[in-house]
Amino acid sequence: MLSSEENNNSVNNFRLRCLDFYIELCSQIQKRFSFNDPILNFCKIFNPLTVVSGNINSIAAKSIQYFPQLVTDIEKLDFEWRLSADSEEVQSIKDLDFEEFWEKIFRMKNSMDELLFPNLSILVKGIMCLPHSSATAERQFSQYNLIKTKVRNRLNIDTCDSILQSKDLLKGYSCHTWVPDTNLLKKKGLKNCAARKYLITFSCSYGMAMATWPTPRKHNI
Q1: Where are the domains of the chain?
Q2: Strand partners, 115
Q3: Residue 161 reports pLDDT greater than 60
Q4: Closest Cα partner for 199 from 183, 178, 172, 181?
Q5: CA pair distance 35, 147, nearest whole angstrom
Q6: Whole-model pTM above 0.70?
């Protein structure tokens, strides 16, 4: 048994190692990312408190410069930006976190049941889609490699895509209990989800996942 003093020393040593880890982590992040990047600095203005402050009158010029594909109408974009600062409805949600704040703005409508911020929404949604790292893409490649193996090298792209979607939809569920939502089945590209669900359930009942079935060599699936 460790004495009280030895135990305290062990705890302190562990804390020091954790601190060293965080220091090194911050150092590596600073080396890999340019925090003075003008695009990153531009993206900061979409912080809820900055949006409602009204300190920035126009975002058109930099939006066109950095994200030309996301800007369809400069004048309307600037109008919507200024409107967001003046809107009482937007002011009332300024304390929400970034995602909740913008999700509510995306859904705001006027008295004619039209979206209040369609152009601003396109820009912000595009910015929110920017990947913070390549980790997500690398995970998808790893999943793809598990699906399309040397034995199953004749799987076509649509089949691989369907298997990836099925795996994603089943997250947090058992293949025996997952029930596809009605709206989900109506989505384009997911029409066969119901059939796929029953096939996966059937295969699981025999102790096999659908994604591990060998592929016939003579024909593409």
Answers
A1: 1-33, 38-128, 142-212
A2: 109
A3: yes
A4: 178
A5: 38
A6: no
